[in-house]
Amino acid sequence: MGNAGKYAVPVLGAVLVLSLTACGGGDDKKSAGSAKPSGSASAAAKSADRLDVRAVLKSASKKTSEATALKIVQTTKNNEGDKRVEESWRRKPAPFTTVKSISNAPGKPGKESYSIVTGGFVYTKTDQVPASGKSWFKIETKAGTDPQRTEGLASDRLAVLLASATGRVGEETVNGRLADRYQATVTMADLAHYDRPDLSKEVRDGYLADAKEAGQASVVLDMWIGKDDLPLKSQQRGKGKHGDEDVTEVYSDYGVAPKEQAPPASDVLTWDEYMDALMKG
């Protein structure tokens, strides 16, 4: 078997998330959580329009669903270590995403991965099979093929906030931009019974499945939304099987498409070719 090099196979499920748009609804049913604002916020005066939490969240959801491109930096921290993932995504002329990540675990050095997702394939860079003369391999995928989906967790998190008793914490600055911070404590047992159109069954069930996998009964969910109603940052904190976990995403470069391109076919191994080359060393 060949020696491990700089690049490792990424766990794409954590970053290629199915994202759907929340579509609004009433306030008369039980919400999935309660607002418990915490953390520091500026003493700036609250404007009346930013206090209309549902209006801001709905507008942010609409704008997120209409984004043509954006950059996402996701960081995950728990007892297993930490991971940083950078995504650059575009919707047109065809869905295209670059995924760069580096992870660190206790007692283990950081490992990098770099992938491009487009045209029904994940292209992953590798230096583990130099004898092949090729530096990429590809795997078929359904991820990143639907132009109606927006990458990242913002869409799902906005939908969950719309389904929750979300409150406005105050104003804070994110990457030099003034933002309104909204927060809710989301209880999974309550969310499981939420059935209004704010939150689709598909998004709700996927969110609950992720929480179950993480061993989390409840989380504190925050969203920082700019004055133009574009999400600038989201954060989810909860305690589960990996201890205290924090998954944060920062959003920027709306409308700026990634410059990278898929590798040429002459430089790409199929998955079977890749595994065969590894076995041969």
- If you compute it from the alpha carbons, what radius of gyration comes out, rounded to the nearest whole angstrom? 20 Å
Biggest beta-sheet profile: 13 strands, mixed
* Helix run count: 6
Structural class label: alpha+beta
Topology as a string of helices (H) and strands (E): EHHEEEEEEHEEHHEEEEH
Percentage of residues assigned to helices = 10-25%
Count of β-strands: 13
Low-confidence stretches: 1-5, 7-31, 34-47
Judging from the principal axes of the Cα atoms, what is the shape? globular
Strand content: 35-45%
In round numbers, the mean pLDDT is: 84
In whole angstroms, the N-to-C terminal distance is 4 Å
Describe it:
- This protein is α+β, with helices and mostly antiparallel strands and 281 residues long.
- It is built from six helices and 13 strands.
- Strands 1, 2, 3, 4, 5, 6, 7, 8, 9, 10, 11, 12 and 13 form a 13-stranded mixed β-sheet that branches.
- The model is unreliable at 1-5, 7-31 and 34-47 (pLDDT under 50).
Key descriptive features of the protein:
about 280 residues, globular, disordered N terminus, about 20% helix
Q: How is this structure best summarized?
A:
With 281 residues, the protein is α+β, with helices and mostly antiparallel strands. It has 6 helices and 13 strands.
